[in-house]
């Protein structure tokens, strides 16, 4: 049973007269422990697919099953609860809350889960340590470099031990050296912590770091020259 | 929900200039609101107090200003004999200003034993015996004393009347704190021989079974044919009639109180709308992390509630301080309305602020909670 199953998903935007269809009946399996990179031309729909899997956007048709839950059937409130428990999201521009310290930013997702204060503290400390920023816990985002901010963003995404970590161009606004840091951090999260990772990137070198490379071309998902399918479709 | 309070506070602190302006604007508006409320309460206390319905005031027919009402003092004896009457208190009233004024001085000349029997107060300074034993002595209400900076031993003159302060008193009846008591005979003589034997009004105290209306009619009929006709009303009616013009004005001013509430509503709502628009993306990020839309609504509501309640509390405290320190009052034709702070009014002010905070947060909160996450994330 795959961890994430995308089944015949389409996404359309009505743009006046014409309809844009960045995703045209795509299907995909992601297994537990996978590290998948998603590449493709700008505007091809990479972010759209990622956002659908993360449960912050709605598909026009199709199903997305994550750890046995069909998230396309969840109402807004329930979907929010589901995200809190199952998704870690790394943004391109970290999107930290400016009025909160690094520590408080990382703690934020845990406030939404039933958890004691001491358990929260333990988890935040582990996540801060994983991104090697323990010494910056009390700093505000404006007091940190872009790379440090992104590492806080990653700590925030992994702190609740989510089912899937998604990252939309996590190195898109960083220089080469920092990009390298972030990419090896992501690899470590996958290898050492065993987290399932889905990363959108423009950079093919970054894409090569993942265990699986998928390309989005004209609304279709391609892996190793073949269109991806889902387990569901194969057995059907 | 309380776990997010630090985040809300920090967000308010981040825009502290805006927060401070909103809070101070709210405070000023609520100060005015409470002040207007205090004026209304003062008026209400005069016309609906405990003795307002059970005490009669006999005044000269068709006269308004105290100086122009001149009743023969011996009417008191005739009224005293009527069934249902417990006591009659002859009072000579002198005021420096018959028209509505913020700085009227009102003297009431009464026989010392009647003051003792029918006026309820504590002497803050001075003593009773030096008052009752001295002809030109005066007992000064605490608010007048504060306003005019008077203390025991001071001699002061208003018009033709010169008195020496022999005591400063505090009365539970707010309006009385704006009075000056002197001896009846002294005030009758103070303005020339022509006033001897006349009083301004007679205060008639009834027993529990007497019918005030019927007695008032009886008194007026008795003196109808006499040298001076009378108009007798309950104390409440008398004060309401005397202050009719002012009451109308105060009734109008109370709309200003509502305008203040409207002002706070639009002020707090504007600030909250601005705060939401500043943080469209931030709210989208919070929702991505798993904050329910209803929670986002709650956060915005908490923010506007804090703004308005904080301002409300400052305004209410300010008005309580202002009202109790200044001892302000307004008087017309010898009747005084005292502006007094009260717990009731303070609670009302804070409740208004809380309610306005909730109302002001609803629309922006709703807007924030309905934002499409993906659209908002693309927001620069
Ligand atoms: N709200 C919208 N309304 C209309 N069209 C939209 C909307 N959102 C996205 N699109 C279109 O959908 C397509 C896919 O967008 P998406 O952001 O997923 O692309 P992308 O592959 O992530 O691009 P990039 O690499 O530049 O980030 C684009 O053509 C975009 O213009
Ligand atoms: Mg994109």
From TrEMBL, chain A:
Pfam families: ABC_tran. Residues 4-236 form the ABC transporter domain. GO terms for molecular function: ATP binding; ATP hydrolysis activity; transmembrane transporter activity. GO terms for cellular component: membrane protein complex; plasma membrane. Keywords: ATP-binding, Nucleotide-binding, Transport. Coiled coil: none annotated. It comes from the Bacteria. Gene3D superfamilies: P-loop containing nucleotide triphosphate hydrolases (3.40.50.300). InterPro entries: AAA+_ATPase, ABC_transporter-like_ATP-bd, ABC_transpr_LolD-like, MacB-like_ATP-bd, P-loop_NTPase. Belongs to the ABC transporter superfamily. Macrolide exporter (TC 3.A.1.122) family. This is ABC transporter ATP-binding protein. It comes from Aeoliella straminimaris.
Automatic annotation (TrEMBL), chain B:
The chain crosses the membrane at residues 20-39, 255-276, 296-323, 343-363. PANTHER family: ABC TRANSPORTER PERMEASE, ABC TRANSPORTER, MEMBRANE PROTEIN. It comes from the Bacteria. InterPro entries: ABC-4/HrtB_transporter, ABC3_permease_C, MacB_PCD. GO terms for cellular component: plasma membrane. Keywords: Cell membrane, Membrane, Transmembrane, Transmembrane helix. This is ABC transporter permease. Residues 19-221 form the MacB-like periplasmic core domain. Residues 260-372 form the ABC3 transporter permease C-terminal domain. The keyword Protein transport does not apply. It is found in: Cell membrane. The keyword Protease does not apply. It comes from Aeoliella straminimaris. It is a multi-pass membrane protein.
């Amino acid at each position: 049973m795959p961890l994430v199953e995308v089944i015949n998903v389409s996404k359309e935007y009505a743009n006046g007269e014409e309809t844009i269809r960045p995703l045209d009946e795509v299907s995909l399996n992601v297994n537990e422990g996978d590290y998948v990179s998603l590449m493709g031309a700008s505007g091809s729909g990479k972010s759209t697919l990622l956002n659908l899997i993360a449960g912050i956007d709605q598909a026009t048709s199709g199903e997305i099953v994550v750890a046995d839950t069909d998230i396309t059937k969840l109402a807004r409130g329930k979907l929010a609860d589901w995200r809190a428990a199952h998704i870690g999201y790394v943004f391109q521009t970290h999107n930290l809350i400016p009025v909160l310290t690094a520590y408080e930013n990382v703690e934020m997702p845990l406030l939404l889960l039933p958890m004691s204060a001491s358990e929260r503290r333990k988890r935040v400390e582990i996540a801060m340590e994983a991104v090697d920023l323990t010494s910056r816990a009390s700093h505000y985002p404006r007091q940190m470099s872009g790379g440090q901010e992104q590492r806080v963003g990653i700590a925030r995404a992994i702190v609740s031990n989510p089912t899937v970590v998604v990252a939309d161009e996590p190195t898109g606004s960083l220089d080469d050296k920092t990009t390298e840091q972030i990419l090896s951090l992501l690899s470590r999260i996958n290898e050492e912590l065993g987290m399932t990772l889905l990363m959108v990137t423009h950079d093919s070198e970054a894409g090569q770091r993942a265990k699986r490379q998928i390309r989005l071309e004209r609304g279709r998902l391609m892996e190793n020259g073949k269109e991806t399918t889902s387990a569901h479709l194969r057995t059907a | 929900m309380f776990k997010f309070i630090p985040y809300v506070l920090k967000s308010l602190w981040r825009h502290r200039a805006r927060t401070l302006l909103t809070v101070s604007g709210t405070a000023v508006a609520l100060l005015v609101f409470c002040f207007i409320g205090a004026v209304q309460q003062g008026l209400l206390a005069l016309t609906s107090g405990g003795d307002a319905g059970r005490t009669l005031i006999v005044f000269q027919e068709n006269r308004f200003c105290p100086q122009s009402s001149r009743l023969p003092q011996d009417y008191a004896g005739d009224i005293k004999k009527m069934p249902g009457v417990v006591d009659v208190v002859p009072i000579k009233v002198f005021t420096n200003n018959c028209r509505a004024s913020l700085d009227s001085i009102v003297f009431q000349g009464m026989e010392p034993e009647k003051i003792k029997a029918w006026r309820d107060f504590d002497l803050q300074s001075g003593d009773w015996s030096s008052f009752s034993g001295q002809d030109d002595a005066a007992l000064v209400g605490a608010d007048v004393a504060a306003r005019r900076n008077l203390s025991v031993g001071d001699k002061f003159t208003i018009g033709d009347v010169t008195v020496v302060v022999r005591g400063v008193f505090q009365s539970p009846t707010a309006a009385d704190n704006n009075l000056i008591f002197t001896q009846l005979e002294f005030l009758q003589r103070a303005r020339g021989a022509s006033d001897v034997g006349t009083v301004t009004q007679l205060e008639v105290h009834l027993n529990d079974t007497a019918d005030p209306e019927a007695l008032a009619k009886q008194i007026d009929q008795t003196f109808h044919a006499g040298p001076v006709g009378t108009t007798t009303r309950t104390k409440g009616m008398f004060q309401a009639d005397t202050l009719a013009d002012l009451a109308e004005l105060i009734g109008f001013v109370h709309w200003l109180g509502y305008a203040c509430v409207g002002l706070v509503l639009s002020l707090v709502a504007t600030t909250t709308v601005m705060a939401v628009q500043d943080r469209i993306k931030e709210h989208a990020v919070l929702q991505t992390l798993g904050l329910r839309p209803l929670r986002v609504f709650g956060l915005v509501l908490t923010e506007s509630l804090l703004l308005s309640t904080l301002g409300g509390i400052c305004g209410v405290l300010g008005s309580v301080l202002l009202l109790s320190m200044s001892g302000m009052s307004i008087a017309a034709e010898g009747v005084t309305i005292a502006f007094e702070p009260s717990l009731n009014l303070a609670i009302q002010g804070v409740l208004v602020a809380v309610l306005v905070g909730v109302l002001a947060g609803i629309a922006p909160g709703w807007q924030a909670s309905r934002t499409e996450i993906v659209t908002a994330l693309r927001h620069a």
